[in-house]
Amino acid sequence: MKYIGIPFRHNGRTRQGADCLGIIYLYLNDHGLEIPPDDGRVIQENWHELEPQRFHKALLEYFEKVDDKPQKFDVILFTIKGKPRHCGVMIDNRRFLHLFKNRKSGIERLDRWQKRIYGVYRHKDVV
What we know:
CATH architecture: Alpha-Beta Complex
CATH class: Alpha Beta
Largest sheet: 6 strands, antiparallel
Order of helices and strands: EEHHHEEEEEE
Number of helices: 3
Radius of gyration: 13 Å
Strand order of the largest sheet: 3-8-4-5-6-7
Helix content: 10-25%
Distance between the termini: 26 Å
Structural class: alpha+beta
CATH topology: endopeptidase fold (from Nostoc punctiforme)
CATH superfamily: endopeptidase domain like (from Nostoc punctiforme)
Number of domains: 1
């Protein structure tokens, strides 16, 4: 899969470097589900401390929060240290693609992250 092994780069939106939103941006846009690269404002590295709900609010512009079981193309928002600040995109009904700071992008099983799920978001073109 061409999305595995992409290095972390804050605000990155290319295969040469991306962050967790960047990997979602690449994956969904490549599959015809267009989203913008950001919410139109500068994303500082400590955005999650300044505006803890920023990610959730931005997702609601293009996605609907759903209570269904996650499916392919859903974005999963996770809590890290109690705040919704990390995301991944489902590649099937069990696994998601994501990217952490100081790591490369990869695929993990959702059941390992179940307790950290803040919300499941489905693109409005899929709902």
